[in-house]
Amino acid sequence: MDYNITCIPGDGIGPEIVNEAKKVLTIVAYEFGHKFLFKDILMGGASIDVHGIPLTDEAIADAKAADAVLMGSIGGDTNTSPWYKLEPSKRPEAGLLKIRKELGLFANLRPALLYKDLSDACVLKTETSKDGFDMIIVRELTGGLYFGKRETVVKDGVRVATDTLTYSETEIRRIAIKAFEIARKRRCKVTSVDKANVLDSSRLWRAVVNEVAKDYPDVTLEHMLVDNCAMQLVKDPKQFDVILTENMFGDILSDEASMITGSIGMLASASLNETKFGLYEPSHGSAPDIAGKNIANPIATILSAAMMLRFSLDLTEEADAIEESVKKVLSYGYRTGDLYTGRDNEIKVSCSEMGDLIADNI
Ligand code: IPM
Ligand code: MG
User: Fold this and answer.
1) Most buried among 62, 66, 71, 213, by the most CB within 10 A?
2) 96 lines ligand 1 (CB under 6 A)
3) Spacing, Cα 135 to ligand 1 middle (Å)
4) Closest ligand 1 atom, CA of 97?
5) Active-site residue, 195 included
6) 149 in catalytic set
7) Which of the listed residues 93, 145, 248 should we mutate to test ligand 1's pocket, taking the one with most ligand atoms within 8 A of CB?
8) What tens digit of pLDDT does each residue of 23-53 get?
9) pLDDT tens digit string along 229-260?
10) Domain annotation for the chain: domains and CATH numbers
11) How would you label 336-351 residue by residue, b for 16+ Cβ within 10 Å and e otherwise?
């Protein structure tokens, strides 16, 4: 079958890692008799440089017209890049927030698991990581602080900045349902993370999650405060199955979760709307410091492509083939720089070599 995939190479290491994902998808198409038709669009800094804005209406239309969207990363060095001299609504990140909102991508799924072969790269003590862990963070993506009213004003000669954190019960309910549905296909446990000891939005969050839980008596629900969760992730990560949380907490906790898997270069993500449609991107950023050097780790993007096949295109066997190939290549000892610990069995490879290896092992 033919599938239309809109790609957003983006900024920094984005174009390099998306290239490797396309390479792997092209082999999958060949092996399984499909055709993936790729169309690139600009977003973030790359779009600012050409159009003066981080996302055009034409680019949004191209994304909407596709079967799924595959993205690299956007943004630059916030201290030095001229993009950050622009007003906030014209900066690279505004493009990403806009596409999430325009496409209704409210559910962000970020799986974090420790591959057996990467336990040496895990920053945790062996006694903590030896049993491995396998969790998925379900992050609300189109509400909360990211989309609330914000302003910076001068009051009585003093600059005052305000961001607002708003959640409706509808927004909470639909993401909670997603988390419980996912838990049912895993180990049937949801940890809902909030700051209900301080925030009203978190108290509503907890109440609505409790209501949703009544429809899932087979799933165990626990509530955890976000500061405690940050600690538990490094203390005992194997306790988690599905972590359900709001936008900002999910942003922070997913970076932490990715780091304990060995490298932030390993964490894939899917952002889904009410239908099967989704945008797939690595959880990490554009790493401008290593861009263009062919040393970035393309695995998070390649695993995001696998999630795309699984969730949006219903190509389960094909998705399995990519994930198996990643495992195989890691078991042979191949490592990009971020994963390399210098052990005897490890072979350091570049971004494009890692892409070749994963493609060749499909
Ligand atoms: C992420 C990123 C984005 C976010 C940035 C680039 C706006 O950190 O996808 O986690 O905060 O959501
Ligand atoms: Mg983030």
Assistant:
1) 71
2) yes
3) 19
4) 7
5) yes
6) no
7) 93
8) 999 999 999 999 999 999 999 999 999 999 9
9) 999 999 999 999 999 999 999 999 999 998 89
10) 1-105+273-362 (3.40.718.10), 123-260 (3.40.718.10)
11) bbbbbeeeeebeebbb
